[in-house]
Specification:
The protein is of the alpha/beta class and 399 residues long. Helix content is 31%, strand content 28%. α1 links the parallel β1 and β2.
Length: 399
């Protein structure tokens, strides 16, 4: 086992995609970096649908790797409650249509890249608090097996998920409203007969209140079948399983599939946090609410934000300047790239959640006729407006 120092330029808490990419680029840019992971196995258990957009990987400094790549899809089918179908293929969606991955291997690969860049890694290391001096975060308290100790840092990066205890301990507001939490469940089923070239999304309050069911094809006859429901629209967490089991039972392609594993958990569908930087602290990825509120996808955004964070922290280490002004370069950097889209999608999610199934049928039917040039909220609304402006009157300020 490596011998760890007592003080680093950067300590990253959480070895998910955002944390590992932050550690990688901080180390590449000269920062003495430590990546802490509370679990003993980076990437496990998987807490994700494993769909990944290709469009932002290059921007995040990540190349497709056969170790975690499992299937590339041509596009997506969006199916309304009444069975109307919108197919979005490569011609219209461009590089927004993506791939299905093995998330545990993906996470391990990013952590490996961080290690190759020079970051140290400590697994089974639980952060129990932050330390402070003169109002600034100066490090973390850690439990590692039977040992308890403090580590100092120029900056602590909270990449510990949307619950983000580290961010809360540091004094940043990470509270979530009930309407911004999705309760999710997913099975990996084998022995199914789904189209390997298209992801599928099923809408409707009878299918998934306030959310959707997804079918993500993996290699061979295996697929991820999952559901996300708005927490405030169901009576109990177990309701997500009831809805998903009923969906599977009604679909002859998948009803006899054999489960290989299943995962459950919460996903935030909120606007970005108002503040993701404070004295000695940064929030990255899900902790910063850099998750698309419409799709629940956050992998690519976390990686993009992590690269920005790592570069800012590398500059801080080289100059010895970990002031709030220096750290704010991350705040302005990530917001310039993604805040407008995230906030627009959150507002759209709020309004879409109020639509009844009949209106959802009209939306999807009109889109199937009109066509869309990009798989985005703005493009969809513009296409619907051209044919059925009455359907988008509640969304006029988006267009």
């Amino acid at each position: 086992m490596p011998r760890f120092r007592d003080e680093y330029d950067v300590i990253v808490v959480g070895a998910g995609p955002g944390g590992s990419n932050t550690a990688r680029f901080a180390a590449l840019n000269g920062a003495r970096t430590l990546l802490l992971e509370k679990r003993q196995d980076i990437g496990s258990p998987v807490r994700c649908g494993e769909g990944l957009s290709k469009v932002h990987l290059a921007e995040a400094g990540i190349t497709v790797d056969k170790r975690w790549f499992t299937n590339e899809v041509e596009g997506a089918h969006i199916i309304s409650p009444g069975g109307y179908r919108l197919t979005i293929g490569r011609k219209y969606a461009g590089s927004e249509v993506g791939m299905v991955i093995e998330r545990d291997i993906f996470d391990k690969t990013l952590a490996l890249d961080a290690a190759k860049a020079g970051s140290e890694i400590m697994v089974k290391a639980t952060v129990t608090d932050v330390t402070r001096e003169n109002g600034s975060v100066t490090g973390v308290r850690v439990e590692h097996f039977a040992d308890k100790f403090n580590l100092k840092a120029g900056c602590v990066v909270a990449a510990d998920g949307f619950e983000s205890q580290v961010g809360r301990w540091a004094g940043l507001n990470t509270m979530l409203k009930g309407g911004d939490i999705m309760s999710c469940l997913q099975y990996r089923l084998t022995g199914v007969e789904v189209d390997p070239l298209y992801c599928e999304f099923y809408l409707g309050n009878e299918v998934a209140p306030g959310g959707y069911v997804w079918v993500f094809p993996k290699a061979g006859d295996t697929a991820n079948i999952g559901i996300g429901v708005m927490a405030k629209k169901v009576k109990a967490k177990a309701d997500a399983k009831t809805y998903l089991d009923r969906f599977i039972e009604r679909d002859p392609r998948i009803k006899d599939g054999k489960p290989l594993d299943w995962v459950a958990g919460g996903v935030s569908a909120s606007p970005p946090l108002e503040k993701t930087v404070g004295p000695g602290i940064m929030l990255v990825g899900d902790a910063a609410r850099q998750i698309d509120p419409i799709t629940g996808g956050g992998i690519a955004n976390a990686c993009r934000a992590g690269k920005i964070a790592g570069e800012v922290l590398g500059e801080a280490a080289q100059t010895g300047d970990f002031s709030l002004d220096q750290l704010m370069k991350y705040e302005t950097g990530w917001r310039a790239k993604m805040e407008n889209t995230l906030y627009r999608n959150w507002m759209a999610k709020e309004r879409l959640a109020r639509l009844d199934d009949e209106t959802l049928d009209k939306l999807v039917d009109s889109l199937a006729d009109a066509g869309v040039e990009r798989l985005s909220v703005l493009a969809i609304l513009e296409a619907v407006k051209a044919k059925h402006p009455e359907l988008v009157k509640d969304f006029a300020d988006f267009i």
